[in-house]
Amino acid sequence: MSECYGKLFIENEKILNCEEFCDETVLNGTSLYEVIRVIDSVPIFLEKHLGRLYNSAKLAHKELWMNKNDILDALLKLIEVNNTSEGNVKIIFNYSEINLEEKHTFLVYFIEHHYPTEEQYSLGVPTVSFYKERSNPNAKIVNNNLRKETDEKIKSKGVYEAILVDRNNLITEGSRSNIFMVKDNCVITAPLNAVLPGITREIIIEICKKEGIRFTEENINFNQISDFDALFITGTSPKILPISKVDDFVFNSSTNIIVQSIMRHYNRIIEEYIKENKK
Fold first, then answer.
1. Model-level pTM?
2. What is the DSSP track for 89-146?
3. Nearest to 25 by CA among 127, 96, 116, 109
4. All domains of the chain in start order, with CATH
5. Beta bridge pairs of residue 103
6. Is the pLDDT reported for residue 222 higher than 90?
7. Residue-level pLDDT at 110
8. What distance in Å separates the CA atoms of residue 249 and residue 196, rounded to the nearest whole number?
9. For a pLDDT cut of 90, what percent of the chain falls above it?
10. pLDDT band at residue 99, thresholds of 50, 70 and 90?
11. Is 274 helix (H, G, I), strand (E, B) or coil?
12. How far apart are CA 11 and CA 8, in angstroms?
């Protein structure tokens, strides 16, 4: 089944039918990517996503051949031609070799999304620990093997997300999210050098600083998981989602006042962003 969702996608400067989409293009060579949530036809936190995309290129020793305005124009064109105001859009910069010559392919397309339900926000979601780590966690590079392994783990356990634990038994991040923990009204997350620099992660830290919520980045051993009052994951699709369970450890995260406060502030920031950027 193709990853391209909807009717049309853009490859380089061409608008094509999703039936023509070739998943092999993404899997061959190196693919740098971003997934951006679109709400009310507005790409949320676009500037931050593009900044991270350029940083991923730098870490991968690649150069993007399009400027930010060109990328924005392609993204807005995709929203227009699909007549879709809500969803997740994936941007790909692919670098592959054909006959010893490097080929560049730019792709932008809608992907299938699964947003949490109101009940999941209200009660929290179950997760499972998974002993895996990314080879280059600071860069968003397509890693199909890791995605396949974590998806299989999530499906087999019937949970929402897999929490990655590294070879040193340290909690790093979710398979497609960042993770935060709360202890004695202090918000804790893994150091930036060990995780993907999530856009939502960045905004959560800004909220904590602005609202006077104690915050720290530190290494957390998985053996300490039961010591926390609450946990939550963050990301493009889930926004801020309380965790109700990690393996057999149960948490009342959704009722934690710190988690609830951060969720309210984050949702308000999104509402303001849409108002400021709605055309």
1. 0.89
2. EEEEEEEEEETTEEEEEEEEEEE---PPPHHHHHH-EEEEEE----SSTTS-B--HHH
3. 96
4. 8-111 (3.30.470.10), 118-274 (3.20.10.10)
5. 96
6. yes
7. 96
8. 25
9. 77
10. low
11. helix
12. 10
The dihedral over CA atoms of 107, 108, 112, 117, expressed in degrees to the nearest 10, equals 140
Angstrom distances, CA of residue 269 to CA of 117, 258, 275: 20, 17, 10
Which amino acid, residue 202? E
Tokens at residue 112, please?
């299938």
Total count of residues recorded for the chain: 279
Beta carbons within 8 Å of 156's beta carbon, 6+ residues apart: none
Task: Please list the residues that pair with 234 across neighbouring strands.
Answer: 178, 240
Residues 89, 110 contacting (CB under 8 angstroms):
yes
CB 229 within 8 A of CB 214: no
